[in-house]
Design goal:
heterodimer; A: mainly alpha; MetI-like fold; two-stranded antiparallel sheet; 25 helices; 75% helix; globular; B: alpha+beta; Rossmann fold; OB fold (Dihydrolipoamide Acetyltransferase, E2P); 6-stranded mixed β-sheet; 6-stranded antiparallel β-sheet; 8 helices; 22 strands
């Protein structure tokens, strides 16, 4: 490209000209594409490239035919499908109880259902192990069973509980937006409740059901922490990737497994994105005409409320037991209360990790807020070629499993790029911030897109018509109007950064410790009490952050707001 | 792609503020090319209230948005005071738009909404205070300065939207169906208020609507559009009384359409054959062989039929006298509408207004009664079936 014969046409010049012609929009579009390509597409491509390299090729040949690989892939798919089904049903039950019944402890149920959103996903795994494991409190002490929960059954419990809120929020939104006139019409026409459910409610919920199934599927097969802690002999791709790197330091093998995981993830996510999202939108647009009526038929109501109570009780038990573990001498064995574990986290070895994590998450939060806002601005601003592609690319940060993002970053930035313009990032705090940002970006983009879409485009035109430039319009009209939504996006982003494990597990170094990695480490070595203490501190920090943001911005305080975003 | 204007720009005799020449707009949609505007030529005069009227999808909003600068014409030129402004971005055009949804900034008070354009233009603080104050009192908004838009009634929101646009003293004020969100009574009230304010301030205004009554009541001139074309431009009474095309006649008010064929065209007029009789009509000019006659229902006079046996339609003293019977009656309050079937099978709508001083409802023919429909030749308007 640096040949002197043809200096007149560099590919950059027309690009810059076009950006200038487009004004603020062009610049924003350019930045958006750079962010997504640089931080998501490029690292992912690096992994694919690595797996196709010479060494990768050998691994392919070795792994592709192996029985163990086949069973790993089968295990992964079965796990994803079952978590999809169980989590979706549980989420639907909780949502039906929330929206369509008049139980008195609704608010409590709602908050309980959302607990997994603000906790590290694998915290459940530890609790499940100590409660139901080989020497578990309930399995052994209570029932005298020597039952091994590790494997598929344990994973199902842990993952279904961890990801159920996604389905729950999805359904709550749908059921609330449900036009009760439709149902009234069906009742008028003589339909019984079961008949109505079958003919009116279910068909309208169908896209939502498929939607949450697919989302849970993707989340489940990508989950690392639970797979490592609870998998036992049940190998899944995520745990094989982890072992390939942590146990064998074999990046090529990890890359090959990553591609095996990436393909179904992207396929399922793509299906959900391109096919279902639109359909769901058509079904539930429009303002609800009336408040949804509570279900009064006891034969329906009682089983619903009953199952919801059981689910909620399990959540309380599992998370409550983590708190117990954090404050007892030896979790599950010696229940004498102590602050030692917590103090270790707050004062001792964990202190560094605590502050490092908070610091990095605090840095990542505004970055992803601003980047997310820019991308959302571009997506919603106007129709242009490649808009839906950009929109899709912006959610890749969650579609691509976290482990793969992590390895991708490791591979992509382990040497200076663009002639030293981007220094080597591997081992620095910057790469951790990057990982946090990538993972929380999609959530922020969704929040911002939702908020921007709610603004009528004529507001912008009105401002421009009154003489304002696009930038002035953004600053004076759009920004103030989407601020509340953006704050909840910030909280979401922070919570997400604090609790994520898979993207940073391969990026942590002794210099920069991250709490989730620390928890996994402690749990892996059997120091469950410490791990529980870390988890409790972590959740407290997240809750505190939500509280602080709520107090300083006058924003609706509960996790509700944060949760609403993550569902959209 | 910017094509050369099909009409050279010239300063017209009547000072025109905006001149639209050969403007064309093509949208590339997924289903192919959609020609929203097909070569529009239009002059907007200084200080006038011009309404662009047409059914939805006729291109009227696209034309307005091209004037505002929100859309770029595919071809053609938009000139403001003789200067082409195609390349001038919307925010640099001395125009302001009033939106159907008002588009009031929900987070700003009434005062701040109205002051918005002035603040953008970095107007000195006291001048803002003064100008906003003046406009607010003209619009009858005084005292509402600190309210938020959500705390206003529909009519007040409408006036804030107008005030916000007027206060920056635009060269041209653009209205995009601003009254369609109001209920019928308020709409009528705002209609006259809008017109009053426009006349008081003398701002050149372009008003888009699909409501013909609104257009008739407010406008100096009306532009009737259909399928991306201008069908006719004229004062409300011209549009109604001398429609240029069948579309205009049909879209504005009610119209009977009668097939007719020309027998002879001379300096005395147009000799036609209609309903089996011959008549001499006024020749509006510009007609081809192919034309139709349009007849307004209020131009049909009904009288009781004296001799029911007279089955022939005759022409006498430039009148058509056609016997028939009343098939249907719709009582509308101020008037009654009759559907009359003539003896040759033609259906004719007739309208008769009421006045207690003149007649009583009892005098009117009833359903099934025989009637004689009388139409004066001057009420038969020869129009082109299409432009």
């Amino acid at each position: 490209m640096t040949t002197l014969q043809r200096p007149r046409r560099t590919p950059v010049a027309p690009l810059i000209r076009r950006i200038r012609a487009q004004g603020a929009f062009g610049l924003a579009a350019f930045v958006s594409v750079m962010i997504i390509v640089g931080f998501v597409v490029y690292p992912t491509a690096e992994i694919i490239g690595r797996s196709l390299g010479a060494d990768g090729q050998t691994e392919w040949d070795r792994l592709a035919g192996a029985n163990k690989t086949v069973s790993t892939i089968r295990n992964t798919m079965i796990l994803g499908a079952l978590v999809g089904v169980i989590g979706t049903i549980a989420g639907l039950v909780m949502a039906l109880v929330q929206v369509r019944t008049d139980v008195r402890f609704k608010r409590t149920l709602h908050l309980i259902t959302l607990i997994p959103v603000i906790s590290p996903p694998f915290a459940v795994a530890m609790s499940v192990l100590t409660l139901f494991g080989r020497s578990g409190l309930i399995s052994k002490e209570l029932f005298g069973l020597r039952y091994d929960i590790t494997g598929l059954d344990g994973l199902l419990i842990a993952l279904s509980i961890s990801f159920m809120p996604v389905a729950y929020l999805n359904f709550v939104g749908m059921l609330q937006a449900f036009d009760s006139a439709l149902e009234e019409a069906a009742t008028d026409l003589g339909g019984t409740l079961t008949y109505r459910f079958r003919t009116v409610i279910l068909p309208l919920l169908a896209p939502g059901i498929a939607n949450s199934f697919l989302l849970l599927f993707v989340s489940a097969i990508a989950d690392l922490g639970n797979a490592v802690l609870l998998g036992g002999g049940y190998d899944v791709l995520a745990s094989r990737i982890y072992l390939a790197i942590i146990g064998e330091f074999n990046l090529d093998k990890a890359a090959v497994f990553s591609v095996m995981l990436l393909v179904p993830s992207l396929l399922v996510f793509g299906t959900q994105y391109f096919w279902l999202r639109k359909r769901e939108y058509i079904t539930v647009t429009g303002k609800p005409v009336g408040e949804p009526k509570p279900i009064e038929q006891q034969s329906v109501r009682l089983p619903l409320v009953g199952s919801a109570t059981v689910i909620a009780a399990s959540i309380v038990l599992i998370y409550g037991y983590i708190v117990v573990g954090a404050f007892t001498k030896v979790w599950n064995i010696n229940f004498s209360p102590t602050f030692d574990n917590i103090l270790l986290v707050l004062r001792g070895a964990g202190r560094e990790a605590l502050f490092d994590t908070i610091r990095l998450a605090l840095i990542a939060t505004p970055i992803s807020a601003i980047a997310g806002l820019i991308i959302a601005f571009v997506i919603t601003q106007r129709d242009f070629r490649g808009r839906s592609l950009l929109d899709f690319a912006s959610v890749l940060g969650v579609a691509v499993p976290g482990t793969i993002i992590g390895i991708g970053l490791l591979l992509a930035y382990n040497e200076p790029l663009l002639g030293g313009l981007i220094p080597e990032l591997t081992g620095t705090a910057a790469i951790l911030v990057l990982a946090f940002t990538i993972r929380s970006l999609p959530g922020v983009v969704r929040v911002a897109v939702g908020a921007l879409n709610q603004l009528s485009g004529t507001l912008e035109e009105a401002s421009i018509s009154l003489g304002a430039t696009q930038a002035q319009t953004f600053r004076k009209i759009i920004l103030p109007l989407i601020r509340p939504a953006m704050f909840s996006g910030l909280v979401w982003s922070f919570a997400r950064s604090m609790t994520s494990l898979s993207p940073i597990i391969f990026l942590v170094t002794p210099q920069w410790r991250i709490m989730t990695a620390q928890i996994l480490n402690e749990a892996d070595q059997g120091r469950f009490g410490n791990a529980a203490a870390y988890s409790v501190v972590l959740v407290t920090v997240v809750l505190f952050a939500i509280g602080v943001l709520a107090a300083t911005t006058g924003f609706r305080s509960d996790a509700n707001a944060l949760a609403k975003r993550s569902s959209s | 792609m910017t094509a050369a204007p099909s009409v050279p720009i010239r300063t017209s005799v009547e000072s025109s503020v905006v001149e639209v020449s050969g403007v064309q707009k093509v949208f590339d949609t997924k289903r192919g090319r959609h020609e929203a505007l097909k070569s529009i030529d239009l002059q907007i005069h200084d200080g006038e209230f011009l309404t662009i009227l047409g059914p939805s999808g006729c291109g009227k909003t696209t034309l307005l948005r091209i004037l505002a600068g929100f859309e770029q014409p595919t071809a053609g030129v938009v000139a403001l005071d003789g200067e082409p402004i195609n390349d001038v971005p919307a925010n640099k055009r001395p125009m302001a738009m009033v939106f159907q949804s008002y588009a009031l900034f929900p987070h700003l008070t009434v005062f701040e909404n109205i002051a918005y354009g002035l603040r953008i233009a970095k107007t000195p603080r006291d001048e803002i205070e003064e100008r906003v104050g003046v406009v607010m009192s003209i619009m009858d908004l005084a005292g509402l300065e600190q309210r938020l838009p959500t705390q206003l009634s529909g009519g007040q929101q409408q006036r804030v939207a107008l005030a916000r646009s007027v206060v920056i003293r635009p060269r041209v004020l653009l209205f995009d169906e601003p009254l369609s969100n109001l209920d019928a009574r308020l709409r009528e009230q705002m209609r006259s208020e809008l017109r009053r304010i426009q006349q008081q301030l003398g701002i050149t205004s372009v008003y888009v609507t699909h409501d013909q009554t609104e257009a008739m009541a407010m406008s100096d001139r009306i532009v009737v559009m259909s399928e991306g074309r201008i069908e006719q431009v004229g004062a409300p009474h011209e549009i109604y009384r001398r429609p240029a095309t069948l579309f205009v006649a049909d879209f504005i008010g009610k119209a009977n359409v009668l097939r007719a064929s020309a027998l002879k065209r001379s300096s005395e007029g147009l000799s036609v054959s209609v309903l089996g009789t011959h008549l001499q009509l006024h020749d509006p000019g510009g007609l081809d062989e192919d034309f139709v006659l349009v007849l307004r229902p209020e131009d049909v006079t009904l009288t009781p039929l004296d001799s029911p046996n007279d089955r022939n339609i005759t022409a006498k003293d430039r009148h058509i006298q056609a016997p028939g019977w009343v098939r249907r009656i719709e009582y509308l309050g101020a008037a009654t509408q009759f559907t009359v079937e003539l003896n040759d099978g033609t259906l004719l709508e007739a309208m008769r207004s009421h006045s207690l001083a003149r007649d009583s409802v009892g005098d009117l023919p009833g359903e099934g009664d025989g009637v004689l429909a009388m139409v004066h030749a001057d009420a038969l308007l020869a129009v082109k079936p299409r432009p």
